[in-house]
């Protein structure tokens, strides 16, 4: 016996925005993926080289689930989050909502999902679940992972129970749209300025524009940082371009968000920010290509060039965010 909800099982590029799109479309709110990402103030940067990492990681978005929290708060949605240490209770939390006709978002470790292309551990992966039977769960993941997919209940249980970096305790969540939700149009400026403020004023040097500047200095040393450059450097570049980022370390998504906003709001600050992020997106893809080339050629000069481009990106993105934060300080022009 199976229980299935009729959903618009459209996969997009990034996991969290894919799941949010499924949950919101089911309640009649259809927003583009760039708009979901931008209204969730999703853009960020982190240079992460923790003790538990074999090689540095360049991240381009806020922490897992912060985007969901930001979007729900901005649009006035009821976000119901359930977490538990009990696998039995965790499964009951999900089936109760699906049985009641509500698709559910899940945060889990993608390593254990049978359909997933990469077997690396990532505890911040998010999917939408819309059905189950005695053997399988029915999920919506990114286009890259197949969109509407299935995985066994056993594998889903392992993915939800996983512990490690960025994991949560069997986290499941639903969104409820109130009778009079906030207009997405009205939330554009607050979402952009909140994102810009966080980017311009990071608490530590590994984040925001300061983090990009730091990356520009440290990427030059990456050939000495690894004993297997042929593995680690292309993997770092792959994560920037293809690991659900939409390309260019999420800058393509934010560029497209700003373009969509510029079609709704007449502002020179917004046009400036969009133009700079359009240029930045191209340069991030260039950085990824240089890192890959450095591994293939064993040539530190490619990493030096990548470092120079990252220095340019730190200045460029700082200027972009300085323009965008002005949206909240004066009337649009």
UniProtKB/TrEMBL annotation:
Where would I find the Butirosin biosynthesis protein H N-terminal domain in this sequence?
Answer: 14-142
Q: Where is the DUF4872 domain?
A: 155-324
Question: Superkingdom of this entry's organism?
Answer: Bacteria
Which InterPro entries does this chain map to?
Answer: BtrH_N, DUF4872
Record's protein name: BtrH N-terminal domain-containing protein
| UniProt organism field | Streptomyces musisoli
């Amino acid at each position: 016996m199976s229980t299935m909800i009729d959903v618009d099982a459209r996969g997009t590029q990034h996991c969290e925005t894919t799941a949010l799109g499924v949950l919101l479309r089911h309640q009649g709110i259809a927003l583009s993926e760039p708009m979901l990402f931008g209204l969730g103030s999703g853009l960020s940067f982190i240079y992460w080289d923790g003790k538990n990492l074999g090689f540095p990681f360049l991240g381009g978005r806020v922490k897992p689930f912060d985007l969901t929290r930001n979007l729900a708060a901005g649009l006035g949605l009821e976000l119901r989050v359930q977490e538990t240490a009990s696998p039995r209770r965790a499964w009951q939390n999900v089936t109760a909502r699906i049985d009641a006709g509500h698709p559910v978002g899940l945060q889990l470790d993608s390593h254990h999902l049978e359909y997933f292309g990469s077997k690396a551990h990532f505890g911040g992966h998010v999917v939408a679940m819309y059905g189950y039977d005695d053997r399988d769960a029915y999920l919506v993941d990114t286009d890259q992972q197949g969109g509407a997919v299935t995985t066994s209940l056993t594998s889903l249980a392992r993915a939800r129970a996983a512990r490690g970096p960025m994991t949560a305790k069997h986290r499941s969540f639903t969104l409820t749209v109130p009778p009079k939700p906030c207009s997405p149009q009205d939330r554009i400026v607050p979402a952009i300025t909140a994102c810009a403020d966080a980017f311009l004023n990071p608490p530590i040097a590994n984040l925001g524009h300061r983090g990009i500047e730091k990356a520009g200095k440290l990427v030059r040393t990456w050939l000495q940082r690894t004993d297997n450059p042929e593995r680690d450097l292309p993997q770092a570049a792959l994560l920037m371009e293809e690991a659900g980022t939409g390309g260019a370390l999420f800058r393509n998504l934010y560029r497209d968000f700003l373009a969509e906003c510029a079609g709704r709001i007449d502002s020179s600050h917004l046009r400036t920010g969009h133009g700079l992020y359009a240029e930045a997106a191209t340069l991030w893809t260039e950085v990824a290509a240089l890192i890959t080339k450095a591994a293939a050629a064993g040539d530190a000069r490619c990493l030096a060039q990548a470092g120079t481009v990252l220095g340019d990106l730190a200045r460029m993105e700082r200027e972009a965010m300085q323009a965008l934060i002005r949206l909240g300080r004066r009337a649009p022009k």
